[in-house]
């Protein structure tokens, strides 16, 4: 089995049971467009990396506390642009099973603990160690998991989970990147490792 490359992205705004229309998503307060852009970004790397890619959105709203697990190889749909990615994201949130994706009711801490059983977990933050300093270590390990914020940073509670599980903090520099850009940069760094 190929090693896994997992990205866990918590979002406190996205809800499963709200009505979502493609025209209102971009200006909508849930910011589903942020998730759609992450999906598009990662989809483009699927056939280029030695890893099995998995995107996990953690819906941290108190009435959700659910993880949506999206193995990229399960998505046979064409995703050529942001419009198609947004369309797919809306459908995936309402019917994950149609796309062979799983929704789990789980706490953020439990999600991280379970993931850490098979993957080394890294927390992406501008204040961490420079990525290039740890690149060698990353390329030696089998499965990797990176945790990053969506349109918001992790909450203090989520950050304390990262410290509790001993996740190494990694930085891509002092500039603040969009979550979708962070995915692209990490995949680019891992491309030839
Ligand atoms: C759009 S940012 C979150 C909000 C952002 N801090 C802001 O002020 O706009 C998305 C996430 O990407 C990760 N990130 C952004 N820039 C980074 C960097 N230079 N190094 C490491 N991670 C970064 C962090 O996990 C961050 O929470």
Describe this structure as you would to a colleague.
The chain is of the alpha/beta class and 193 residues long. The protein has one domain: SPOUT methyltransferase, trefoil knot domain (Alpha/beta knot), CATH 3.40.1280.10. It contains 7 helices and 7 strands; from the N terminus they run βααββαβαβαβαβα. It has a 7-stranded mixed beta sheet with strand order 4-3-2-1-6-5-7, with helices on both faces. α2 packs across α3. The mean pLDDT is 93. Bound molecules: S-adenosylmethionine (SAM). The site of S-adenosylmethionine (SAM) has 17 residues, from β5 and α7. S-adenosylmethionine binds at residues 124-126, 148-149, 151-153, 171-173, 175-179, 182.
Throw out a few tags for this protein.
single chain, 193 residues, alpha/beta, Alpha/beta knot, 7-stranded mixed beta sheet, 7 helices, globular, binds S-adenosylmethionine
β-strand percent reads 15-25%
What number of structural domains do the residues give? 1
- Name the strands of the widest sheet in spatial order: 4-3-2-1-6-5-7
Average pLDDT works out at: 93
**For this structure, what is the CATH homologous superfamily?**
SPOUT methyltransferase, trefoil knot domain
Computed over alpha carbons, the radius of gyration is 16 Å
Tell me the CATH topology: Alpha/beta knot
- Ligands bound, unique: S-adenosylmethionine
Number of helical regions:
7
Unreliable spans are: none
Q: What is the β-strand count?
A: 7
CATH class wording? Alpha Beta
Rounded to the nearest angstrom, the distance between the terminal CA atoms is 18 Å
Overall 3D shape: globular
The CATH architecture can be given as 3-Layer(aba) Sandwich
The share of residues in helices is 25-40%
Order of helices and strands: EHHEEHEHEHEHEH
């Amino acid at each position: 089995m190929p090693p896994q490359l997992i990205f866990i992205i918590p979002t406190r705004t996205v809800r499963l049971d709200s009505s979502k229309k493609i025209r209102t998503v971009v200006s909508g307060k849930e910011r589903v467009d942020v998730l759609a852009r992450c999906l598009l970004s990662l989809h483009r790397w699927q056939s280029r990396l030695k890893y099995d890619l998995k995107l996990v959105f953690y819906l941290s709203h108190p009435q959700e506390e659910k993880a949506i697990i999206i193995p990229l190889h399960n998505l046979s749909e064409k995703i050529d642009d942001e419009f198609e990615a947004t369309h797919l994201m809306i459908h995936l949130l309402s019917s994950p099973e149609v796309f062979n994706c799983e929704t789990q009711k789980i706490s953020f801490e439990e999600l991280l603990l379970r993931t850490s059983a098979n993957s080394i977990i890294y927390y992406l933050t501008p204040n961490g160690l420079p990525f290039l300093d740890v690149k060698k270590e990353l390329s030696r390990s089998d499965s990797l998991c990176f945790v990053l914020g969506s349109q918001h940073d992790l909450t203090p509670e989520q950050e304390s989970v990262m410290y509790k599980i001993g996740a190494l903090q990694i930085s891509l520099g002092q500039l603040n990147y969009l979550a979708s850009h962070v995915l692209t940069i990490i995949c680019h760094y891992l491309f030839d490792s």
